[in-house]
C-alpha cells in the first residue's frame, strides 16, 4: 500500500513539472520609466501597435515605481509628450495647431519597443520639438513703425508617433516682446516654405520675405532630435538679413548673413 502511494505521488510530481501553462495568448506587460519628466508635469502617454492600444494624460508623481500597461505582443511604439496647451490631437495621432496660433513648446519621446516576451521596458528620453523664432526689425524709418507681421508655412501639425511635421496651412502673427522684436514658436518644418509678410500702418503688405529659404541657407537642420532656436535680424536700411542659430542647451550662436 505504501509502495502504491509513493508511485502515485511521484507520478503527480512528474506531471506538474512537465505540463507548462500556454501563455501565447497572454499580453506583454510594458513598463515605462517616466524619470525623464518632471513629477508634476502632465504628459500624454500613447502606445500604438497594429492600432491605438492606449492614450491617457498622466502625472509621473502618480507612478513612482513606473507606469505599467498590458499590450499586444509584437512591436509597439511608445509616445510621450509634454507642453500641450493650444494644440489638439486630431485622430489621436496628429498634434494640430489651431488657426492663427503658434506651436506649443513640446518635449516628446518616441520609441519602437519589442514586446514579444512577458515583460518589456522603456525609459522616456524627451527631446525638444519646437523652435523659438525671434524676428528683429532694425533701422525702420519713422513712417514704418506700427507694422504687423504675419508668418505662413506648409506645416501645421506633428505626428506624435514619428515626431515628423505634417503638411497643412499654418499662419500666425508673432507676438511683439520688445519694441523691435517679435517672437513665435514653430513646429518641425516639412519644407522651406516659411514666409514672412510685413504690413504697414495702412495694412498694405510692404515686404514679403522667404525666410524658410534664409533658414535653409544658414545650415539649420529641421531633422535633429532636438531643435535649436533662431533669431532673424532684418535691416530696413540696408536690406541685409542675418540668421542666427542658437544652441538651445549651450546658448552658443552661429551667424549667417544673407
Molecular structure report:
This is Lipoprotein. With 258 residues, this protein is mainly beta. Helices cover 9% and strands 48% of the residues. The strands form four sheets. Strands 6, 7, 12, 13, 16 and 17 form a six-stranded antiparallel beta sheet that branches. The longest helix has 17 residues, at 2-18. The termini are far apart. Mean pLDDT is 89; it is low at 1-20.
Which features does this protein show?
single chain, 258 residues, mainly beta, six-stranded antiparallel sheet, six-stranded mixed sheet, 2 helices, 20 strands, elongated
Describe the structure in brief:
With 258 residues, the protein is mainly beta.
Proportion of strand residues:
over 45%
Question: Total strand count, please?
Answer: 20
- How do the SSEs run, as a string of H and E? HEEEEEEEEEEEEEEEEEHEEE
General form: elongated
Structural class: mainly beta
- List the uncertain runs: 1-20
Q: Helicity level, as a percent range?
A: under 10%
Tell me the Rg in angstroms: 27 Å
Overall average pLDDT: 89
Main β-sheet description:
6 strands, antiparallel
Measured distance between first and last alpha carbons: 101 Å
Count of DSSP H/I helices: 2
List the helices and strands and how they pair.
Blueprint: H1 2-18, E1 28-33, E2 43-48, E3 52-58, E4 67-71, E5 74-82, E6 88-90, E7 94-96, E8 107-115, E9 119-123, E10 127-128, E11 130-138, E12 148-159, E13 165-172, E14 175-178, E15 181-187, E16 195-199, E17 205-209, H2 211-217, E18 229-235, E19 241-246, E20 253-257
Amino acid at each position: 500500500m505504501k509502495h502504491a502511494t509513493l508511485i502515485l505521488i511521484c507520478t503527480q510530481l512528474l506531471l506538474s513539472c512537465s505540463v507548462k501553462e500556454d501563455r501565447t495568448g497572454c499580453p506583454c506587460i510594458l513598463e515605462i520609466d517616466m524619470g525623464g519628466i518632471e513629477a508634476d508635469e502632465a504628459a500624454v502617454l500613447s502606445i500604438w501597435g497594429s492600432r491605438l492600444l492606449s492614450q491617457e494624460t498622466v502625472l509621473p508623481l502618480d507612478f513612482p515605481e513606473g507606469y505599467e500597461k498590458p499590450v499586444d505582443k509584437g512591436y509597439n511604439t511608445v509616445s510621450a509628450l509634454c507642453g500641450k496647451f493650444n494644440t489638439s490631437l486630431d485622430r489621436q495621432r496628429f498634434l494640430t495647431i489651431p488657426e492663427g496660433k503658434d506651436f506649443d513648446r513640446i518635449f516628446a519621446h518616441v520609441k519602437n519597443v519589442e514586446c514579444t516576451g512577458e515583460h518589456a521596458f522603456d525609459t522616456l528620453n524627451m527631446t525638444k520639438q519646437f523652435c523659438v523664432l525671434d524676428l528683429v526689425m532694425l533701422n525702420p524709418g519713422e513712417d514704418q513703425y506700427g507694422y504687423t507681421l504675419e508668418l505662413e508655412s506648409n506645416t501645421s501639425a506633428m505626428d506624435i508617433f514619428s515626431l515628423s511635421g505634417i503638411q497643412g496651412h499654418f499662419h500666425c502673427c508673432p507676438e511683439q516682446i520688445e519694441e523691435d522684436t517679435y517672437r513665435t514658436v514653430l513646429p518641425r518644418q516639412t519644407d522651406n516654405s516659411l514666409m514672412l509678410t510685413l504690413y504697414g500702418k495702412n495694412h498694405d503688405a510692404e515686404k514679403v520675405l522667404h525666410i524658410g529659404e534664409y533658414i535653409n541657407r544658414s545650415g539649420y537642420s529641421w531633422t535633429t532630435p532636438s531643435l535649436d532656436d533662431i533669431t532673424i535680424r532684418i535691416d530696413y536700411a540696408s536690406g541685409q538679413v542675418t540668421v542666427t542659430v542658437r544652441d538651445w542647451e549651450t546658448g552658443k550662436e552661429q551667424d549667417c548673413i544673407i
